[in-house]
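Write out the 3D structure for:
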Amino acid sequence: MKISLKKLKAIILYFCEQTDPKFLGKVKLMKLFYFLDFMHLKKYGAPITFDRYVKLEHGPIPTTIKNLVDDAGYDIEHSLLADTIDIERPDGTRMYKVVPRRRLTEDDLALFTEAERETLARVCARFGSNNTQSIEEASHEEAPWKESEMLQEIPYTLALKDKDCNASKEEMDFLQNIVEGIS
């Protein structure tokens, strides 16, 4: 992952404020990150988080971000996200609800470029009021999920196969070299 923890926290808080809180569970949060990275990649030639995505039954999962959010659910006091979110399990549900511990601030928003703000807004406009099942289904329509093997990493380059991708093969090849250099 090639993003500061401070910026990652700001993205989570942005999603907490700009989506319907009754539908924001851990699974939906993971899909919001997928669409954030892949929508940004398709339009601007690079993801925002550079996290590694893996194909799971319920859709793509950002591996490092998932581990950080899971830690918040297991041991919030020692979690790197302790000042950002709580994970709650409402009675009678299977959902692990993401609840902000603080509000998004102007300082948080200042961490984003104009292009990143635009992509965050597009993701929230498209999926903010959706339930988890509908965003899962949308992720399953994307070439990166369709073209990957279960439990395997999803290469960012597969975004080229989606009709809405504006990035070039050269940009994707360059990106792939960067991603491989991070690991």
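The radius of gyration is 16 Å.
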